[in-house]
Design a protein that fits this description.
five-stranded antiparallel beta sheet, globular, ligase, SAICAR_synthetase_CS, EC 6.3.2.6
Length: 402
């Protein structure tokens, strides 16, 4: 999936039923969106608006103040600070779980080969600039559970590789042939990394990954339409690439690329609809796909998490944009900016330690985003059993049952 190198048109509307076991704390979401329409996003937005207009008018809009001063924040901050010694920075399940053949260490996930399946453990490692910046309490659990929620709620758009989730930090997935391409979808001109759209745009690039960009765009401006900017995996970083280059180099067939592209754009439109319903803007994200043994294209990796996506608060966006201010964000961008202000994260061999307060704030924002999107309460894990022992036990039980 995201860190592993091994892993149509829309279906008619239907009531979603999970195809895989998920943790009981992850809610189930149903939809009757006409996903086979070319006006997918318009229908999605109008449907959600009709269903939620009265409810939304009766409550205050989501704001950064709600994020900073939420009553729940103080209690969670205490749990976050208390969990620093128990952060999951590394796993070695190949030593504790029978049947696991090998381990691949990604930026965030540890991936284990069990023969027929892959066991993906989402750790608390925080990556950016192609490096590990810190270890964020509860991050692995938040990312895994957020992805599972989205996997379950996007089956009307595409099938996925998930089989089961035996632990808060673990997903077991079907093996598939992973396309060596990340499908990055963008709705705004923004970002701070070398491959971000704003970074390349301000350098004068006007054709990026096969997309013609108009003159006169400014940072954080909404694009005329969502665009796809694929990247390929290199040894230590992602490389922007055009669709023609993907086809010519044999990374994907034209048919596979076109299908995966349609799925990526539809997933993003749907994600934008759900985010907007909850007072957020899904700014950009990335998807990965693989081909199953039956030839079907499957969604893999994480989906719409604060690690793979950028979220802004919708209510304040327009006013702040008009005044030249940065949007209020609920993702890891503020941590990226802190490192850019205090070092050269691409060149410095040793990076400064992220301040504890920033680490706690990022942990809280990840939890806040999970609770806002899923409308469910994040469950603080018990510390009675060491986390590595807990994961080992549950993974062993799950594999023996498959």
């Amino acid at each position: 999936m995201a860190d592993s190198t091994t892993m149509r048109t829309l279906n008619p509307p239907k009531t979603l039923k999970p195809k895989f076991q998920i943790l009981s704390s992850i809610p189930h979401f149903t939809t009757t969106i006409k996903s086979n329409s070319k006006k997918f996003s318009t229908i999605c937005l109008s449907t959600m608006a009709d269903q939620n207009q009265r409810r939304e008018l009766s409550k205050p809009p989501l704001s950064l103040d709600a994020l900073v001063n939420a009553p729940r924040k103080e209690d969670l901050f205490a749990a976050i600070r208390g969990s620093f010694p128990n952060r999951l920075s590394e796993t070695d399940l190949q030593l504790t779980v029978p049947g696991l053949k090998s381990k691949t260490r990604g930026k965030v996930r540890d991936i284990y080969d069990s023969g027929e399946y892959l066991v993906l453990v989402t750790t608390d490692r925080q990556s950016a600039f192609d490096r590990i910046l810190a270890s964020i309490p509860f991050k692995g659990q938040v990312l895994n559970q957020t992805s599972l929620w989205w996997f379950d709620n996007t089956q009307h758009i595409t099938p996925n590789a998930v089989v089961l989730a035996p632990d808060e930090n673990v997903t077991i997935a079907r093996k598939c042939s992973v396309f060596p391409v990340e499908f990055v979808v963008r709705g705004f001109v923004t970002g701070s990394t070398d491959t971000s759209l704003w970074t390349v745009y301000k350098r004068g690039v006007r054709n990026y990954c096969g997309n013609a960009l108009p003159e006169g765009l400014v940072k954080n401006q909404k694009l005329p339409a969502n665009i796809l900017t694929p990247t390929t995996k290199a040894a230590d970083h992602d490389v922007p690439v055009t669709p023609d280059e993907i086809i010519r180099s044999g990374l994907m067939t034209q048919a596979d690329y076109e299908e995966a592209s349609r799925k990526a754009l539809s997933l993003f439109e749907y994600g934008q609809c759900v985010a907007r319903e909850h007072g957020l803007i899904l700014v950009d994200t990335k998807y990965e796909f693989g081909k199953g043994r039956d030839g079907s294209i499957l969604l893999i990796d994480e989906v719409h998490t604060p690690d793979s996506s950028r979220y802004w608060i919708a209510h304040s966006y327009e006013e702040r944009f008009q005044n030249g201010l940065e949007p209020e964000n609920v993702d890891k961008e503020f941590l990226r900016l802190w490192f850019k202000e205090h070092c050269d994260p691409y060149k410095d061999k040793v990076l400064p330690d992220a301040p504890e307060e920033l680490v706690c704030e990022l942990a809280w924002r990840y939890i806040f985003l999970y609770e806002t999107i899923t409308k469910s309460e994040f469950k603080i894990p018990s510390t009675e059993e060491p986390i590595h022992d807990r994961i080992s036990r549950k993974v062993a039980q799950a594999l023996s049952s498959l």
